[in-house]
Amino acid sequence: MLYYIGLSLAWLDYFLGVVTCPGIVPTVLTVLWKGQTKTAAIVSQILGMMTGFAVWLGATKALYGVVNVTTSGSQLSCMYGVIASFVSPAIYTVAISLIKPASFDWNKLFEVELITDDLNAEEIEANKRAQMLSPAMIKKMKKMSKFASFAGVAMFVGVWIIWPYAMYGSRYVFSKKISSLSPFFTGWIVVCIIYAFFTFFLVTFYPLWDGRHQLKIIVLGLLGKKSPTRGIPQEHVHAGQEPMFLEPLDTETKGITATGKDK
């Protein structure tokens, strides 16, 4: 369909870049900056998208004198549009948040309650205690949050800034036909294949290993067997709290306490 209306996949890719990039910075600040307001997170993305389209079409008009499918699909004008749609929301969301500052209380995330119509008071209280995080777990989460932030910034600077601008400045053309550039091209392809397989195995199998204890609890629960939390790493166990046994609830017998003993 795109072919018959004169659009190519390259043009669609550039278009999606302008549309999706405005959501990156506000989304990141949603989990990393408590000062971002709800209004700023929403409005900044809309303004960022409008800015990206304005810069994209404006750059196309300035560079080529006319705006059509061919000229708007040029790499240079699209690059300007994507950069504008990515950077401008960062300015908008900070400015709007500072107009009417807010400070989000992260502890509210721990107040989310499950719908437990068929549980008694003691079972509800046991579930609340099970959802709490120990100091060790909170410390670990803060450490991993800092690591994720650093890794995200490093990946962005390397993949979005250093590498593209270096390749653009060198006027390098990806082609195996040029004998002097053939080793680099071949090495690039090999690295891409290795990276793709590494990412596949990491994303597919590591979450299963990391959540093996929780998966064990779920499987044993489905099989109707008890599963003590002493098999879970210590950061998940709260100080001064006895290990709880998870077992399926009997709709006819409600006398199961948090320790797995009958009343």
From TrEMBL:
Residue ranges crossing the lipid bilayer per the database entry: 12-33, 40-59, 79-99, 147-166, 186-209
KW Membrane (keyword) present: yes
Key words of the record: Membrane, Transmembrane, Transmembrane helix
GO molecular function, one term: urea transmembrane transporter activity
Any one Gene Ontology cellular component term annotated for this protein: plasma membrane
PANTHER family cross-referenced by the UniProt entry: ACTIVE TRANSPORTER, PUTATIVE (AFU_ORTHOLOGUE AFUA_1G17570)-RELATED, PTHR46154
Protein name in UniProt: Uncharacterized protein
Upper taxonomic lineage: Eukaryota, Fungi, Dikarya, Ascomycota, Pezizomycotina
